Amino acid sequence: MAVSEAKLHDFLGKFVSDLGATAHAGMVVIGERLGLYKALAGKNLTADELAQATGTDARYVREWAASQAAGGYLTYDAHTQKFGMTEEQTLTLAHEDGPAYIPGAFELALGSLAAVPRITDAFRSGAGMGWYEHDEAVFHGCEKFFRPGYTMNLVSSWIPALSGVKEKLERGAKVADIGCGKGASTILLAKAFPNSNIFGFDYHDKSIEMAREAARLEGVDDRVTFQLASAKEFPGDGYDFVSVFDCLHDMGDPVGAAAHVRRALKDDGSWMIVEPFAHDEMHDNFNPVGRVYYSFSTLLCTPCSRSQEVGACLGAQAGEKRVRQVVESAGFSQFRRATETPFNLIYEARP
């Protein structure tokens, strides 16, 4: 076997980077939970000062801060021995309600990895694992992971890209948000379009409970109703607008769910489908974004679908062609890609 020393060193360098990133995920979650990033926002502090400001142990904080500086997540002044944050680091690590908050992604990753022993067994048995069976960090991390993208794009660009939907929502429409989770997308719709009546449905009871509390805290519980229901059985009809955010590929029977959406919509209604960005051909997704989505799909999306009836297992990198097949098989006559971001594809389907 002929091994290229240069290629071996290159690959080992990739390994070191990946190993550091894996451990770094835990560091980010610790930093968020203890308020370490927020304490550094706009300030330069020594490890002792940071520990005092956050009520934590200085020795642990020093080690943590060093890991963050080594990874480029904090700045460090060797002369003053103070750690700090750039404006960009502050935006992404300390502003939880901002458009680019990233700690949730790491919480989602750690929660997903807790299922590795069971998913390993599933490789042998072919069994599924329901969304509700995962570590609670998955539910919280998922909401934090997706919410910034929704905050940045939903009202400003995604809704306006749909045919006449913005005007309907402004006048007052009946809306169903399917697979709403903890309600981030549902609440954003309710806040942006106060004349509309929004219904959020999810099959996970704990997420529905948390969504109701979030709506109360946001002051929109008078026009948002959260209810436990699956995508194939959510109640009501005559909806002007139905949305599904990053969850069609998780469903066991996406065609059945799409057919139910078709029946629930008005004849002039619209269905917005938000899915992870993906090309149709697998090899075209061999890039950093594809790597993230294929990994999460292995741990979360595919086993979730396999745990339900039919078990279609579209996966998080389904691509436009497969989503179109699902939508058209359910009886929709119109389907198009309305817009996109580096992380999402936004489709519009009409009866």
Task: Tell me what you see in this structure.
It is built from 14 helices and nine strands. It has 351 residues and is an alpha/beta fold. It has a seven-stranded mixed β-sheet, sandwiched between helices. Strands 1-2 form a two-stranded antiparallel sheet. Helix 12 links the parallel strand 6 (239-245) and strand 7 (265-276). The N and C termini lie far apart (59 Å). It holds the Pfam family WHD_Rv2258c. InterPro entries: Methyltranfer_dom, SAM-binding_MTase, SAM-dependent_MTases_sf, WH-like_DNA-bd_sf, WH_DNA-bd_sf, WHD_Rv2258c.
In a nutshell, what does this entry contain?
By secondary structure, the protein is an alpha/beta fold. It has two domains: 5-95, Winged helix-like DNA-binding domain superfamily/Winged helix DNA-binding domain (Arc Repressor Mutant, subunit A, Orthogonal Bundle); 103-350, Rossmann fold (3-Layer(aba) Sandwich).
CA radius of gyration is 22 Å
Task: Determine the N-to-C terminus distance.
Answer: 59 Å
CATH architecture level-2 label of the largest domain = 3-Layer(aba) Sandwich
* Helical amount: 40-55%
Strand content: 15-25%
Number of strands: 9
Mean pLDDT score, rounded?
96
Order of helices and strands: HHHHEEHHHHHEHEHEEHEHHEE
| SS element count, helices | 14
Structural class call reads: alpha/beta
CATH fold descriptor of the largest domain: Rossmann fold
Largest sheet: 7 strands, mixed
Strand order of the largest sheet: 5-4-3-6-7-9-8
CATH class of the largest domain: Alpha Beta
Q: Let me know the CATH homologous superfamily of the largest domain.
A: Vaccinia Virus protein VP39
| Shape by Cα distribution | globular
Low-confidence stretches: none
InterPro entries: Methyltranfer_dom (IPR025714), SAM-binding_MTase (IPR053173), SAM-dependent_MTases_sf (IPR029063), WH-like_DNA-bd_sf (IPR036388), WH_DNA-bd_sf (IPR036390), WHD_Rv2258c (IPR048711)
Pfam families: Methyltransf_31, WHD_Rv2258c
